[in-house]
Design brief:
CATH topology of the largest domain in chain B: Sodium/glucose cotransporter
Structural class of chain B: mainly alpha
CATH architecture of the largest domain in chain B: Up-down Bundle
Helix content of chain B: over 70%
Strand content of chain A: 5-15%
Number of strands of chain A: 4
Radius of gyration of chain A: 20 Å
Largest interface: A-B, 45 and 52 residues
Shape of chain B: globular
CATH class of the largest domain in chain B: Mainly Alpha
Strand order of the largest sheet of chain B: 1-2
Oligomer: heterodimer
Number of strands of chain B: 2
Largest sheet of chain B: 2 strands, antiparallel
CATH superfamily of the largest domain in chain B: Sodium/glucose cotransporter
Number of helices of chain B: 22
Distance between the termini of chain B: 70 Å
Shape of chain A: elongated
Number of domains of chain B: 2
Number of domains of chain A: 1
Strand content of chain B: under 5%
Order of helices and strands of chain A: EHEEHEH
Helix content of chain A: 40-55%
Chain lengths: 90, 488
């Protein structure tokens, strides 16, 4: 590694990153809490939805929402200097 | 609802198709060699930091979803049923893990030209002891990971041929092919073959989704049948089971996200924009893989209800045997699935192997044996390393017994202890190398100590996760201590 390199921010330097926004992680916490089936009665199976027990379907839907949420977080809350520059130039 | 199994062997046509696929990986390796731009470490181990969206996404995908996803996950679904829905969640959690450190690591890696995770640790903490211990732990974990892949192919070959072909033959043949194309073109070879393997893997999984539940009359029939014969497999997990889900989320969110080969893919992306798009798409991939593996496993527990515990990792291969004997179309579909299984194994193992080679060469050989070595020499040493490592792993893979999923868990107990270097080190400026080292050793002692004492899980939490908690605690104490105490 070249120790002589300067510390000026490169074009990949994050100017906005998910970790800096606690509320995003509160939403994650909530969605993970829905995805983990702790809240059903013991021994519950439930009716079949899409061929799967209800609790499985609910967990899968929660993961699907988590995926959509993450896509949105990546696009809105992970911004680099280079991306900002390129937007500015358009 | 049991079905009889019969002797199964691939005909010459099928063997030719598989041989063609395997040869194509060597051809891709040769093409990658022609596209290489010199003998630099960056070119060999990171494809010159040039991976575009498709290559990066498919190499991330085929590296993350492995032979274990196909065989280990179907095996555990066979054993525990729908509780393995946890796998869809924890495979997703890897992406959440990336979001907690990747933005900063990627920027730093481009600026400082990192090749290995050890480069970052050395740069950030300036502690040779910490860098060496982290590197050794990563090499151990990856060697274990590669071993699991090699054993998975042994299980696949043996299962598909009902024992007619011993697993050792499959392991040796695949290992040689893998190391040949990897030596030819390094990361470029691995990423390009991953593209073929990723597409094959995805096609194989989709094929399984359409074919396997039908063997038992469809998914609803599977659930209803299991509700009668083994209701625990369709019921919601117990509270301890839910704790285990949480533990898996931590294990993968912190552990799988810092796999050296995964971190090197972050380094190898052409741009941050490409990386972001690839990670966004990766969020939905558990549905195309882990979910299908679970469906196959639970269907297997209805169609093949009498497998012994040690045989459960072969349930997918046994199911394929059934499909194959039903029709000519089924036969050829299984050939494709078998090729996908080989692809899953090879794409994960080759990435891990390349990563081990880079760490042995850059973080150990160069630092401790030949500090004055140039890049061409290091690249050459790295290629020799790959051959030596794969030989050792093949010998171990052929001579050991274990279920695949246990192998998978044990490597995480170790690897996860490096997590604070990335998750905390990138953000906590006051975190010092000695503190991280103390936490790492404490975490290892707790994680491995609990495992060896016969407590691989405490209230559903993996011993490694308990160790990580202690590890994080040490880091927190180290950071909160007054400056005067930290300097003494």
């Amino acid at each position: 590694m070249d120790s002589a390199e300067n510390d000026a921010p490169g074009s990949d330097e994050p100017i906005r990153e998910p970790r800096r926004h606690p509320w995003l992680w509160l939403v994650y916490l909530l969605l993970y809490a829905v995805a983990i089936p702790w809240y059903w009665p013991a021994g519950y199976r439930g009716p079949l939805i899409l061929g799967l027990p209800l609790w499985v379907t609910v967990s899968l839907l929660a993961v699907l929402v988590l995926a959509a949420w993450t896509g949105w977080v990546i696009s809105r809350y992970w911004k680099t200097v280079g991306e900002e520059d390129s937007h500015g130039g358009q | 609802m049991g079905a009889s199994e019969s002797q199964l062997t691939f005909g010459w046509g099928a063997l030719t198709v598989i041989a063609l696929y395997l040869s194509s990986t060597i051809g891709v390796g040769w093409l990658a060699r022609r596209s290489s731009r010199g003998h630099s470490l960056s070119d060999h181990y990171l494809a010159g930091r040039s991976l575009g969206f498709l290559a990066l996404f498919l190499t991330l995908y085929s590296t993350q979803y492995s032979g274990n996803t196909l065989f280990g996950y179907t095996g555990i679904s066979y054993r525990i049923g729908f509780s393995w829905t946890a796998s869809i969640l924890f495979m997703f959690s890897v992406i959440t893990g990336y979001l907690l450190f990747a933005p900063r690591l990627v920027a730093l890696s481009r600026k400082k030209k990192f090749i290995t995770p050890g480069d970052y640790i050395a740069h950030r903490f300036g502690s040779p002891r910490l860098t060496l211990l982290s590197t050794l732990l990563m090499i151990y974990a990856l060697a274990n990971y590669t071993l699991a892949q090699l054993r998975a192919i042994g299980a696949a070959v043996e299962g598909l041929t009902n024992g007619a072909v011993p697993s050792a033959y499959g392991i040796i043949t695949l290992a040689i092919i893998m190391v040949v194309y990897e030596t030819l073109g390094g990361m470029r070879s691995v990423a390009w073959t991953d593209m073929i393997q990723g597409i094959l893997l995805l096609s194989g999984f989709l094929m399984l989704l359409f074919m396997v539940p039908g063997l038992a009359g469809g998914l609803p029939a599977v659930v209803e049948h299991l509700s009668r014969i083994d209701p625990a497999k369709v019921e919601v997990p117990t509270l301890e089971g839910c704790m285990n889900w949480i533990s898996y989320v931590f294990l993968f969110g912190f552990g799988a996200a810092i796999y050296p080969q995964a971190i090197q893919r972050l380094y190898a992306s052409r741009s941050t924009r490409v990386l972001k798009r690839s990670l966004a798409l990766m969020t939905i991939m558990p549905f195309t893989t882990a979910l299908i593996a679970m469906i196959c496993g639970v269907t297997g527990s209805v169609v093949l209800p009498d497998l012994a515990l040690g045989e459960t990792d072969q349930v997918l291969a046994r199911i394929c045997s059934l499909i194959m004997n039903q029709s000519t179309a089924g036969y050829w579909l299984v050939v494709l699935i078998f090729a996908a299984a080989l692809a899953a194994l090879m794409s994960t193992a080759d990435s891990a192997l390349l990563s081990i080679s880079s760490m042995v060469t850059k973080d150990i050989y160069q630092v401790y044996f030949r500090p004055q070595s140039n890049e061409a020499e290091l690249t050459s040493i790295g290629k020799w390393c790959s051959w030596i490592i794969v030989t050792l792993l093949v010998i171990v893979a052929i001579g050991t017994e274990n279920t695949l999923i246990r192998l998978l868990e044990l490597k995480f107990e170790v690897l996860i202890q490096i997590a604070p270097c990335f998750f905390l080190g990138l953000y906590w400026k006051r975190l010092r190398g000695e503190t991280v080292l103390t936490g790492m050793v404490a975490g290892l002692l707790v994680g491995l100590g609990l495992t060896w004492l016969g407590y691989p899980r405490l209230w559903g939490f993996h011993a490694g996760v308990v160790g990580l908690l202690v590890n994080f605690g040490c880091c927190l104490v180290g950071v909160l201590r007054p400056t005067s105490q930290r300097q003494t």
